């Protein structure tokens, strides 16, 4: 069933307004961005191929519109409120932000803890810590290529474990926009 723009407005305008308000300081900008998001939705509705993914599609448009807003007016960048915690980078829609992020972050934390020591250390220090891969190499007394290899292998192990446990949906840039547990008895989630 195809939805019309009025139905989308009724369903998504309030949650989108909250989503935008968390990321933009000026109320006038919030309203302008919300209107721009719905103009883009209306203009692009024909490009939506999978109706069941409409929510992720709409929030992707909203995120991109917020980014465009800050690109147009670099003077406002200091008010941009973006998540800095890796757990929050997996954000979906606003009403599910905290619970969904906590769920998947809890899964990932358990998965990281079960990695072999050298890969766990590499992931924790680079992905969750502040070290670059070059700094990791120096800290561990290994070459840069050795550090990169450990991080890549650790990521690959995490991805394999996550995909065995969950069905993950990403956007074109590889950001997680949705996930579902494959097995309710998964030991990680």
UniProtKB/TrEMBL annotation:
The RNA polymerase sigma-70 region domain extends over: 9-72
Q: Which GO terms describe its biological process?
A: DNA-templated transcription initiation
- Please tell me whether the keyword Magnesium is annotated for this protein: no
Source organism per entry reads: Anaerotalea alkaliphila
Traced from the root, the source organism's taxonomic lineage reads: Bacteria, Bacillati, Bacillota, Clostridia, Eubacteriales
- Keyword tags: Sigma factor, Transcription, Transcription regulation
**Per the record's keyword annotation, is Transcription included, yes or no?**
yes
Q: Which gene encodes it?
A: sigZ
Sequence similarity: Belongs to the sigma-70 factor family. ECF subfamily.
A Pfam cross-reference name:
Sigma70_r4_2
SUPFAM superfamilies per the UniProt record, alphabetical: Sigma2 domain of RNA polymerase sigma factors, Sigma3 and sigma4 domains of RNA polymerase sigma factors
* Top-level lineage group: Bacteria
As one GO molecular function, the record gives: DNA binding
Segments forming domain RNA polymerase sigma factor 70 region 4 type: 107-158
User: What's the protein name?
Assistant: RNA polymerase sigma factor SigZ
InterPro entries on file: RNA_pol_sigma-70-like, RNA_pol_sigma-70_dom, RNA_pol_sigma-Z, RNA_pol_sigma70_r2, RNA_pol_sigma70_r4_t2, RNA_pol_sigma_r2, RNA_pol_sigma_r3/r4-like, WH-like_DNA-bd_sf
């Amino acid at each position: 069933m195809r939805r019309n723009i009025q139905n989308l407005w009724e369903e998504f305008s309030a949650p989108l307004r909250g989503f935008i308000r968390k990321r933009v300081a000026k109320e006038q900008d919030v309203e302008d961005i919300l209107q721009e998001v719905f103009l883009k939705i209306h203009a692009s509705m024909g490009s939506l191929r999978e109706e069941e993914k409409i929510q992720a599609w709409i929030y992707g448009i909203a995120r991109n519109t917020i980014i465009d807003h800050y690109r147009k007016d670099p003077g406002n960048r200091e008010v941009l409120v973006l998540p800095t915690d890796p757990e929050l980078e997996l954000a979906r829609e606003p009403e599910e932000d905290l619970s969904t992020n906590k769920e998947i972050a809890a899964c990932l934390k358990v998965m990281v803890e079960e990695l072999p020591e050298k890969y766990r250390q590499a992931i924790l220090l680079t992905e969750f810590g502040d070290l670059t891969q070059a700094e990791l190499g120096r800290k561990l007394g290994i070459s840069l290529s050795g550090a990169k290899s450990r991080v890549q292998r650790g990521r690959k192990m995490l991805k394999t474990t996550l995909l065995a446990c969950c069905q993950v949906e990403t956007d074109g840039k590889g950001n997680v926009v949705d996930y579902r547990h494959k097995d309710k008895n998964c030991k990680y989630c």
